[in-house]
Amino acid sequence: MEDVLDQYEQPYDPKRPLVCYDEGIRPLIAETRLGMPAQPGQRARYDYEYTRHGVRNLNFFFEPLIGQRAVTITPHRTMQDFAHNMKWLVEAYPDAVCIRVVLDNLNTHTVAALYATFEPAEANRIRKRLEFHYTPKHGSWLNMAEIEWSVYSRTLPKYIPDEEALRFHVGALTTERNCQQARVNWQFRTQDARIKLKQLYPSLSG
Asked: Whole-model pTM?
């Protein structure tokens, strides 16, 4: 836990950028009947019937110190998808010596995923550019990208019928938030953790 919090307290360094990574599932849902738009004194209304067109995985890359984010969309949430996202991240920061990545401690979020997806030389090239900092078990709330995902889940339209429409809405929201340099007002520090979560620390007494 303190390892992740320490990353948030370090000053911005373009050679060692801090990027929070998270994933979220978005169902593709189409209306069977047109809803009724909002009117003065009345909220928008939708018919209870809908058609599901599968789901897509939204991969969030959030750089909290400068308020910039990017979102990739994949059909799955596999080890190979994670590996390709890490390759995308490395290529997005060509001048960085090391990219510090805060991410959840899942079995797909490993260096092994790189070697299971790419040739050894390519996997090693990507690995050497990344430095993983995992949130503790049941501590995914420490990942700022999770907050960013919650913003998207609340803001995107309720019904998005296909991947093309999803890419349009996600792209528009990402551009808007990047232009605003929207950031997270993070106030939970290492000292706070030692006080508020002291029951999680090992005891040296007795």
From this structure: 0.81
